Amino acid sequence: MEGAEGNVYVLRRTYQNEETARRAAAAKWQELQRGAAAFSITLARGRADLYPEMHGRVTGFKSEVDNQDWIIARVEHIIDESGFTTQLELEAKIPEWIADSGG
User: Fold this and answer.
1) Which of 31, 71, 95, 103 has a CB 3.0–4.6 Å from the CB of 3, allowing a cystine?
2) In this structure, is residue 7 part of a structural domain?
3) Where are the alpha helices (DSSP H) in 1-77?
4) In a domain, 72, yes or no
């Protein structure tokens, strides 16, 4: 078992050995954690320097959002009659202790 106490997620596949099963469980835990918190935002002024997998923080939201480390999951740069804008999809960054331990 990997992750936190509480709800249990069952991996339906049978694995060759314990190590392979643990790696699969840790990968699934990380996947579930990445999707735990996410939001989208459109920047009124485009930012061509932003790209997927970049880490960052935001300000001007609730403290739970402002204090979270974020990863850019998706970026779309748009140039149209309104000018240059950037749309971001952000996901909560997995804390290092979870990423290092696999759960």
Assistant:
1) 103
2) no
3) 18-34, 63-66
4) yes
Q: CA separation (Å) from 87 to 18, 64, 99? A: 42, 21, 27
Task: Please give the residue range of the domain that contains residue 94.
Answer: 37-101
Query: Which three-class secondary structure state does DSSP give residue 54?
Result: coil
Give the tens place of pLDDT for each residue, 57-89. Answer: 999 999 988 988 899 999 999 999 989 999 999
Pick the closest to residue 80 from 49, 39, 42, 53 (CA basis).
Answer: 42
Residues 24 and 11 sit within 8 Å (Cβ to Cβ): yes
Count of domains for the chain: 1
Give pLDDT tens digits for 1-26: 555 566 677 778 888 888 888 888 88
